[in-house]
Amino acid sequence: MDFGRLITAMVTPFDAEGAIDWETTGRLVDYLIDVQKSDSLVVSGTTGESPTLTETEKEQLFRFVVERAGGRARIIAGTGSNDTAHTIHLTKLAETTGVDGILLVTPYYNKPSQEGLYQHFKAVAQSTRLPVMLYNVPGRTGISMTAATTLRLAELPNVVATKDCASLEQLTEISSKAPAHFRVYSGDDSVTLPAIAVGAYGIVSVSSHIIGSKMKDMIDAYLNGDVRRAAQLHAECLPVFKGLFDYPSPAPVKYALALSGLPVGGLRLPLVALTDAEGEYLRQLV
Fold first, then answer.
1. Gap between the Cα atoms of 122 and 137, Å rounded
2. Prior bond of 270 cis (ω within 30°)
3. Which one of 74, 86, 158, 197 is CB 3.0 to 4.6 Å from 40, fit for a cystine?
4. Contact of 147 with 118, CB cutoff 8 Å
5. Strand (E) positions, the chain?
6. Among the options 31, 118, 135, 201, which is catalytic?
7. Residues 234, 237, 239, 242: is their CA dihedral positive or negative?
8. CA distance 63 to 99
9. Active site residue 135
10. 163 is catalytic
11. DSSP 8-state code for residue 145
């Protein structure tokens, strides 16, 4: 399974009552694929506010985005949780919706051992026919999966990729030791270029909602040997990379989408919209 170089972790649009805005969701899918050049979309990931989406909403989102994308991009369903049995249940549900793969976050709050992490991911991977992308994000989950555990999981036949936000050093180690079929993605927009330079395959991005086309040009420039052009594009993108994470995500990217002419509504508590001062700061960047 090739998820491509640029994967967007898609926001979930809401209407004024806080329900999913399906019309806007459709326009967003088209925009991310056709304008921002996303190769794949993650649906119901962190950026999609997955903790506040119901199981029914997740299933509906998976089906809707698969149908709307119509094969123009791969669709990856966020089905991970801190309960292995529930993760398996949601993964089996996602299988019925036509998605191309699943994203499994490290179990949060429980703080399992490395062996616990391995057994969790192994159990879920063995329960599904879908390709699995691991997701290590210690800043949100309170637990970090080591490179050694990731590499051990990479030996499972349908564990095909990881999104790792631990460090550039860890990305380097995984990239240099992983099996040939296993793809390594950064989950930190600001190190997209450095990550690819040390062997990562691509990026699972939030900023690609706003500057995806430029990010794709940056990646292509580097892969085509034009390192100077890639570095120039990295420098141009860096203020946006930083600005979209100065406040709790996805509030900044939702604000930025509205500035770009594609308003996607507010957020569900406990997340809140940017203040006027925060919005003005972001306006100057994007």
1. 18
2. yes
3. 74
4. no
5. 6-9, 40-43, 74-78, 101-105, 132-136, 159-164, 183-186, 202-205
6. 135
7. negative
8. 8
9. yes
10. yes
11. -
Residues 6+ apart with CB under 8 A from 86: none
Nearest 5°: phi and psi at 202?
A: -175, -160
Which has the closest alpha carbon to 43: 29, 57, 62? 62
- How many residues does the structure list for the chain? 286
The neighbour count for residue 79, using CB atoms within 10 Å, is 31
| CA–CA distance, 10 with 136 (Å, rounded to integer) | 18
Q: What single-letter DSSP state applies at residue 183? A: E
The single residue of 37, 163, 216, 254 carrying the catalytic annotation is 163
Strand partners, 205: 8
Q: Are 156 and 134 in contact (CB under 8 A)?
A: no
* Spatial contact of 4 and 42, defined as CB atoms under 8 Å apart: no
* Tens digit of each residue's pLDDT, the chain (286 residues): 899 999 999 999 999 999 999 999 999 999 999 999 999 999 999 999 999 999 999 999 999 999 999 999 999 999 999 999 999 999 999 999 999 999 999 999 999 999 999 999 999 999 999 999 999 999 999 999 999 999 999 999 999 999 999 999 999 999 999 999 999 999 999 999 999 999 999 999 999 999 999 999 999 999 999 999 999 999 999 999 999 999 999 999 999 999 999 999 999 999 999 999 999 999 998 8
Q: Which amino acid is at 108?
A: Y
Rg of the chain (C-alpha set): 18
Query: Could you give the CA distance from residue 129 to residue 14 in angstroms, rounded to a whole number?
Result: 31
